[in-house]
Amino acid sequence: MAELHNFVGNIKILTTGGHFSPLKLWLHAQPLKPTAFLRITTSNGQSICLTRGHLLFKTKCDRIERQTIRAGKISLGDCLIVDIEGQLETQQVVKVDMFHSVGFYSPVTASGDLLVDNILVSAYSEVESVQLQSKMFEYVAIVKTAAEHIFSANLVSRIFGGSGGVTPIAEIIRQFLLLSANFT
User: Fold this and answer.
1) Residue 120 burial (C-beta neighbours within 10 Å; 0-12, 13-18, 19+)
2) pTM of the complete model beyond 0.85
3) How far apart (Å, rounded) are the C-alpha atoms in residues 109 and 15?
């Protein structure tokens, strides 16, 4: 059986409004790594499992007004954006549990967001500036396109990832973003 992180390319991931966004790369793809997760449950019974550093969208409970926040900062009573039969609505957080499991994945989509168990989350993690991360990945895409015209497919695949799994350059960008967070 193929591992999830080996699927790259023509994959599309569900985002808001029932639309599908292309998978650009895997920011994280660690199928065997023991990891601490949060399970966040909303008032309508929807729940999502993600790491403390993954970004999601907190909002006002009476209207959708996205604020990017790390999952580890979510509190009881905060509201999240939930897709209910194709409509985005706010739902209050009623429970937050921590548990441990093995493996985690973080796909980066062209739209920068995705629906996980019908809850809207960011495609990014760690640094709460979605704009900064999005811009960095735009630059990577431009450099990758240029590299494809200059270097062999094998070398481009080793640098930028490919059917072999997580994108090596994504880890470099993640480290840069973590460092840059100290200066914002």
Assistant:
1) buried
2) no
3) 9
